Amino acid sequence: MNTPETVEPQDQAGPRTLQRGLLVLKTLQNHQGKGLSVTDLSRATQLQRPTIYRLLAALIDHGLVQNSSHSRRYSATRQDQGLFGLDPRVTIMQPIMQELAQLTGDAVFLVGRDGDDSVSLWREIGPYPVQILATYVGKRQPLGVGSGGMAYLATLGDEAIEQIIERNANQLDQYGGMTQREMRQLVTNTRIRGYSVVGNYAVRGALGVGCALCDHKGRPILAMSVTAITERMPAPRQKEIAGLLREALDSVADKF
Question: CA 90, CA 80: separation in Å to the nearest integer?
């Protein structure tokens, strides 16, 4: 049984929270592999579950921990993905993402690939009062269910796309009831437009526009997207945002 937690004096609360956060992080680092659930972490650290949830949220937001939405297990990210060595793609893209978030007013996301998954590398929040923040640094989901991941997926070869869709088939239904057929159609639409438009799958009531950056051989390096509530994303604005994304990505192409 977990021991009760006491309220700390104000001048001790900060250091105490830091110590607990580091304890959770260290515990996850010592159990790499399948990851740990909140219950596992609570048992290992003797911290209460609400405290674990708060600490995990902060660690995830800073890219130090990632979670699997379908297994509800958490794991420490590799150090080259967290604050102890920021991903070089983030270092290059962060200033541009900040500018784009201010310009559009909406949330901007940077996405990479790990196997059959997309991985959120960074996000910047715009000033519009209603923000779509369903993804965060370190979050993984099947490649293609979000606008950034779809932009990335559509740049791959037909055979690779088909293999990824088939391997992810048993997970797609968790994202707004997406089907393999719908994902294939989204790939086709993305290729025709030159940018992705994905709405109401990963997040209900949200719509994202994404573009991918490829190297000189046409291989995708990353993708960037802007996501907002559906009402803010009529077709003309989708096209406008795609142009801003393309311009931003082209401006840094020579840095990769």
Answer: 11
